[in-house]
C-alpha cells in the first residue's frame, strides 16, 4: 500500500509530507502519534485533491453548484468528481458512454467517508497500545490507498469508454492534412491511408479532452511532374511513416475532434537515414 500511495504523489511537498507522516509513527513515546499520522494523511489527500481539482477549474464546470455555506465553496466530493470526470456531464457518461454514474459516485463517496474516521482526537484512539495503533495505522493507510485507487479506477473506466465512443475514423479524418515532414521528401506526395494504432486520453479538464495519437501514415512520394511521369522521367514510391499527434475536443461534444496546431510529428528517418547515409558514404 505504501508503494501504491507513493506512486500517486508528486515530487516535493506531497512525498515529503508522506515521509514525515511515516516518520511520526516511530515516536512511540507520543500518545498522539496515531492522531498525528491520521491528520497528516488527511491533509495529504486534501492537497492531492486540490492538485487534481483546482478551484478555478471545478467552478467553471457546468455541473458545479454550490453545496456549501461559503462563496464558491467546493466539497471534497465535488473535487473527487472532477478528478475523475473533469467537466463531463453525468448525462453524457450514462447515456452515451453507458456508465453507471451512481455506482461511480457511490464508490467515490465511500472512499471519502473512509478517510474521515481517523481524523478526530477521541479518548478511544488516544494513548493506545502499540498493537492497536498498528492496526489503526493499517486501516488509515488502507483508506488512503483505497481512495487514490478508486479515483484512478473510475477515471480509467471513463477514459476507456471515451476511447471506444470516439470512432477512429473521426480521428483518421482529422489527421488528413498537409504534412510538411513528408512534403520535404519529394516533389509531390499523396496521403493514402492513416492508421491509428493507439489513442491515449491524457487529460480531461473543465473545458476539453486532450488526446495523444500514434499510428502510421501511408503515402505515395512522387518525383517530377505528372508530365514527367508520362514521359518516364519521374517516379512514384509508396511509403509509410510513423506519426504522433495531439488532438482536442470540448467536454460538451467529445466527438468534435480537432488536431492541435503544430503537434503533428512524422518520423521519416527510415527514409532520410538511408538516403543521406548512402550519400555520405559515396
Give a verbal description of the structure.
The protein contains 12 helices and 5 strands. The longest helix is centred in the middle third of the chain and has 36 residues, at 130-165. The chain is α+β, with helices and mostly antiparallel strands and 282 residues long. The mean pLDDT is 84. The chain has helices at 2-7, 13-24, 33-52, 55-60, 76-85, 90-95, 101-116, 130-165, 168-174, 180-183, 226-231, 269-281; strands at 188-204, 208-223, 235-250, 258-259, 265-266. Strands 1, 2, 3, 4 and 5 form a 5-stranded antiparallel β-sheet that branches. Helix 5 crosses helix 8 (130-165).
Characterize this entry briefly.
The protein is an alpha+beta fold and 282 residues long. Helices cover 50% and strands 19% of the residues. It has 12 helices and 5 strands.
Break the fold down into its secondary structure elements and pairings.
Layout: H1 2-7, H2 13-24, H3 33-52, H4 55-60, H5 76-85, H6 90-95, H7 101-116, H8 130-165, H9 168-174, H10 180-183, E1 188-204, E2 208-223, H11 226-231, E3 235-250, E4 258-259, E5 265-266, H12 269-281
Antiparallel strand pairs: 1-2, 2-3, 3-4, 3-5
Helix pairs in contact: 2-3, 3-5, 3-8, 5-7, 5-8, 7-8
